[in-house]
Amino acid sequence: xxxxxxxxxxxxxxxxxxxxxxxxxxxxxxxxxxxxxxxxxxxxxxxxxxxxxxxxxxxxxxxxxxxxxxxxxxxxxxxxxxxxxxxxxxxxxxxxxxxxxxxxxxxxxxxxxxxxxxxxxxxxxxxxxxxxxxx
Length: 135
What we know:
Number of helices: 7
Number of domains: 1
């Protein structure tokens, strides 16, 4: 299978501590995964642990975008924009970082750059009401 998205040496170096399949495929795994989140999981996922994994995929995508050549970055961001819009449509903002305040502080997550760490769907919210409040 031909790679659609760049998987250059900079991307490979960035992914060296990630799961084998992410190291091997990079955006060619992560963007279809994010598409699946956008079309299916953003409305159906109910496990906070799976939700955290899903949102981590977006964080890794953001890290890769930072090292892509400008033309590749623009092309990838165009594809990503449609998916992001669908995730935003199917979720709502919460007051808390989904990883908790300690991780938020340690990794310097913020609502503008890491918007996905401040959103959940209704199914997760129903099971985690004691942890999150709607914004």
